[in-house]
Amino acid sequence: MSLNTAQSASGEAPSTSRPAPNLNNSPRLKRRRRPWVFALCAALVAAGALGTAFAFTSVNDTQEVLVVSRDIKRGETIEAGDLSVVQVSVDPALTPVAGSQKGELEGSRAAVDLWAGTLLTEEAVTDSLVPREGESLVGISLTPGQMPSEPLYSGDSVRIVTTPGDQGEITNGDPVTVEAVVVGVSRVEETGETVVDVSVPEADAADLAARAATGRVALVLDARER
Known about the structure:
22% of the residues lie in helices and 25% in strands. The chain contains 4 helices and 9 strands; from the N terminus they run ααββαββββββαβ. The strands form 3 sheets. It has a 5-stranded antiparallel beta sheet with strand order 5-8-7-6-9, covered by helices on one side. The chain has a two-stranded antiparallel ribbon with strand order 1-2. A hairpin with a 4-residue loop joins strand 7 (177-188) and strand 8.
């Protein structure tokens, strides 16, 4: 009797079991790669590196400079408690005074009005006031034909010369001349004229101001070589 016949006779169903599948040999699911994820990660890493570099550079670019501690009027003497030393990052366009010069500035004067909390610049401090004792400051408004085309600078030695009147008369005598030193220059855009502030001896100030008011003056620039 065959084996199958014996199993049928005994009433047992024939075995239909199958071997378990080998999971190791089953195909794996492929994960879909997303390029934008890698791009985002790279951007975040780059941004973090840039932020760190910026912070490091900002800290290392700071320097000690002087800051005004209280309001100082133009001409007032600068005292020890008027200035403070701070460490900040300074714009290259500015010319702040280094903190190490604090002691040297004691006893100097404010060239302009100084306000508390502002950086102290080199132009804001002076050893002497203008005009000095015995001198006066006179402003002269000049047209382009009354002055040289060469730019004027503070400290230039000039002469203010009286010019002929409206009728163009010229006298036989020498024209009245006043020697002066340029203190400041500003241009009036509305009229095209230039206002030159000059320092002159106090005794000549009144006469020069009267002549300048008539417009009958001209400015002569003398040699800058000394």
